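Researcher: Quick one. two chains, 651 residues in total.
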Amino acid sequence: MSRINNDQASAAVWFIVGLMITIASVPYGLGTLDSPGTGFLPFLAGMAITLLSFIGLLHATLKRRMGVGWKPMMRGVIWKKSLIVLVALFAYALLLKALGFFLATALFIGFLLRAVQPQRWPVVMAGAVGTAVGAYGIFEVWLKAQLPKGPWGF
Amino acid sequence: MVMGFQVALQPANLLFCFLGVLIGTLVGVLPGLGPVAAISLLLPTTFHVTPVSAIIMLAGIYYGAMYGGSTTSILVNIPGEAASVVTCLDGYKMARQGRAGPALGIAAFGSFIAGTIGVVGLMLIAPPLAEMALKFGPPEYFSLMIMGLTILTFLASGPMWKALLMAAFGLFLGCIGMDTLMGATRFTFDILELSDGVGLVPVVMGLFGISEVLLNVEQSMERSIFETKIRNLLPNLKDWADSLPAILRGTGMGFFLGVLPGGGAVISSFVSYAVEKKVSKHPEKFGTGVIQGVAGPESANNAATGGAFIPLLTLGIPANSVMAILLGAMMIHGMQPGPMLVKEQPGLFWGAITSMYLGNVMLLVLNLPLIGLWVKVLKVPYPILFPLILLFCLIGAYSLNNSIVEVAIMVIFGLLGYLFKKFEYEAAPLVLALVLGPMLETALRRSLLLSAGDPTIFLTRPISAVLMLIALFLLAYPLVPWLRKRGRGLPKGEAKD
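Model:
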């Protein structure tokens, strides 16, 4: 059996996050009770996260002693697919301004249609171009949303 | 009320009401895209219309989704959205027995009855409550928000420390940006977009929309629709006799739970199912295709939508994450929900409420004849559907401020939402705390200024004290079974979380 369980791992991460928030709040100024400063509530929130994660850590450790071990979260799932989607999302966010909405969207949709659960090429091409044209028409032309334009002006 | 109908019956508002309930039903039908994500997504599209039309449409999406959610539960055994999870238990079994028609029919009629009664309740309760809320000062508001957050964490599944931790993290996120009392910025890391705070819309779309897609794509994406001829949508007399008490009970409970900050449609549907099982002469039949198991929860989740508007419209406090988005929408449109809304903008207040009457009628007309169409929508393969859902979320986040930062925030919260679900943390307390954070901070600091730093102000003012005591009771309640077992000398390990 593994040394730690899921709750112990997550509570430990939260403990660090809570401490970081607490410490980072101090320079903003805590003020006094009759005149709380800018850092007052973030400090309290950070303290609360630290305290609650400590309680969680104790709780999870008790459970661990009772035999509750690590529960695999990726068993029975194809995690590579969610990773592909996540990478595509970050890439879209990075390339949207540079490529413009139309091209970035066509590439994004085409990539997802082909890479996650591979569709036939005609479906990929039609889906990518059709979605980009349709979304551009609805959001840019009809709803007047100001979508980023690439070097080609669309 | 007459003024409300005058507003709601204007052609433009009727059109937006229709669009809202239609989109809501579609969103409810499609698994993986809930009302929170849909309202967030469509919020920027309402910037060009009047505030009344915008709120009418966005509210329509919310209660429309409650109607649509039942269709997938009954026909595919996949809840279209969380409030219809419990409908799967008996609804799908009814479909397997060839009774998909009456199941869909009673879900639609029950939703209609409950939705309408919920709106009547909203109409009757909201104005006097708004009058009472005028007496609220910062300490009362602070205590009310603390109680709302506590209720939500109390009702969350899993250990309470996790839900409280999420609420505390949400409060911290709410602190990012400009300190409204001092004018200083916090935790912005020199990113200009963060000086207005972390946007609710990208956070919600990330936590609920993107994360849901990430979880769905890693599962097998094959889903089968139960092939059956859907006929006899009108329930027979026996169905009605069995269902009517369940509909009325579900309506009462749903409305009450909807009003409570932290309550809402999901909890109401589960409570209604539990109550129906409890009062039934044949509880053992629940889960085998009993019509009350569909009628009760579907009524409860629709009544809850009406109830949920009460704290928003009268106190300016959102009862759940959908209401939080609506609060944001109202503020973007220059409205300040709260006790003054009914006095200052009666046209909007009553127009929004009466549009819900009309919306409920539209939904009944839409749902029954269009069920065939919704089934066709369900047949769109998920590998084709999910890129579209992602694209809508991306456009929605970007078009809020024409900013890539908002897109990045959404993707980051998508990843966080995915991890939260893997590690069994509920996102709802985080969202509510994020929304309430700035209001809560202002109320807390004003209360302390008012009392010259004396924190007992929250316990010395009667309304505030009652609200605080309720919150404290809820916080202490999970310890009761543990203490009781310790008192009996049982081993510690046997105590429940």
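Residues 29 and 35 of chain A are 11 Å apart (CA to CA).
Researcher: Thanks, that's what I needed.
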